[in-house]
Amino acid sequence: MSAPPTETWQSPYEGLVQHGLLTQDQLHRCLLRAADQGVDPILWLMDEQGLTAPQIGRVLAQFYRVPYQPYDPALSLATDRLAMVKLSYLRHVRCVPLQGLDDEIVLVLDDPANDRQVREIRQVLKLDRVTLRVSLPTEILRFLEGAQPGGTPDIRALVDRLEDGATAEHFTDITATDPVLDENAAPIIQLVNQLITDAVGMGASDIHIEPGQERWPAQVRFRIDGLCRDILKIPASHVPAVLSRIKIMARLDIAERRKPQDGKFRLAVDRHPVDIRVVTLPTVNGETAVLRLLVNEGGLPLDQLSLSPDNLRILRELMNRPHGLFLVVGPTGSGKTTTLHALLGHLNTPERKIWTAEDPVEITQPGLQQVQVHPRIGFDFSAALRAFLRADPDVILIGEMRDGETAHTALQASLTGHLVLSTLHTNSAPETLIRLLDLGLDPLHCADSLLGILAQRLVRVLCPRCKRPAPAEPADVGQLVAILGEAHPVLMNGQQTTPLLYQAVGCSHCGGSGYRGRMGIHELLVGSPSMRALISGRASVTAIRELALREGMHTLLQDGAAKLLQGHTDLRQLMRVATPH
Length: 581
Fold this sequence. Notes:
Distance between the termini: 67 Å
Radius of gyration: 28 Å
Largest sheet: 7 strands, mixed
Number of strands: 18
Helix content: 25-40%
Strand content: 15-25%
């Protein structure tokens, strides 16, 4: 049977239909879902339709009219060309150079028809004679996993080297002050740098280095998507050197092991600056260290905060007000800073002067005047706010209302023609109003200035590559009815079908956890005239919540349940971060 003509194919995937591997409707659904989730269509075709890499590879070869190159560990990488670039560049362009015959290089790409990109790669790698081949992105990444351009070490190989060096000392009495390697030894420096690089690459927010009992190795854990994950172990004999290296980078006292210390430093990872805050603490097993990674990627656009359409519309309306007080509330690690900077990004125009006081400055944006507070020298949030009021501001961001003085000054600023944004550590939007009054604010002034309060949490997102739909259990349906009410379209008593909820499975893409990334769930209380009347009368939390719900507020649980029904998360993750009032 002759191969179907490729001239009429609009995409390489149409060949799968021509070969009878799937129907046009199946292809259309896979492409739509891949586009909706921001996932490579090939992964959907393999996961959802059960297609194999060779099946897809043959169609790609027919469409691009170059040979298909499957992953083969026996093939030699062009190591001299790999040394010219970083792996991150090759991953970005989805290309791997293989050694061909004589001095010819075989370029394996996922899109050989992209002439502009091929020319760029040839220029970067200084290639004259090349042969093009096509492969799947996953197989290109498998080739690159075995490559270490520029001698970049693999973290587990570094630990293996440390363990090999420690073998002879394993049964000797090595004290914490006498490490086998010091903090300036090359393997220690490489290990610390690679720990940070890997943590950034995995999207970790923190690195925990925890000593073991007696001569047990130290455990290294990364906090990813809000939960800690075991990564590797470091030989006990080398833990002091690793900690000393971190202290040197953070400009801490390496001789002090009895008191807590904190510091910070900056490291470039793949040419992107990463600010790292370090805390060291003495424990009964020895010193421990926690490194907080602050990857400054600028503020997110407001429409990328996972806000519901209603909340997004209301927020934009509130941010158009010339003055007033707006608060973002929630526990530590709930994404308040990200939301505040998204709001600032929306407000950041040449017509506005914006000042921010933060501790620390985690996100920077052009056009903002950002200040790092230093409480130790008396320059706290309150002092920064007083200074801002003399510096002709339009918008002021105060990182946190930690005390009554800061809250009072912020309130006065909002009443005198400024838009003030800030945060509080409270559990819900209605409770925040009571907290403001507890800080000593005047109820009438508070009612006059309040624009709104956004409470939020971060919930883990199901991995788009491996999540699976399944009929909801009766108990789950009962919980959803209690949250959303029986009148919700998906939960109405009259419907004949059980709603489908997605479940975590686990794959290589998500590290076997079934989850990848987090998204916000929100509760937006608006300072309406009726709400202001309740605030000025010192109403109870219950009365404030009931009015807010009547005026259209959705609770954290309700917003999260709506996103659950959209397939973004599951009930267990929702109940973990949000509880009923």
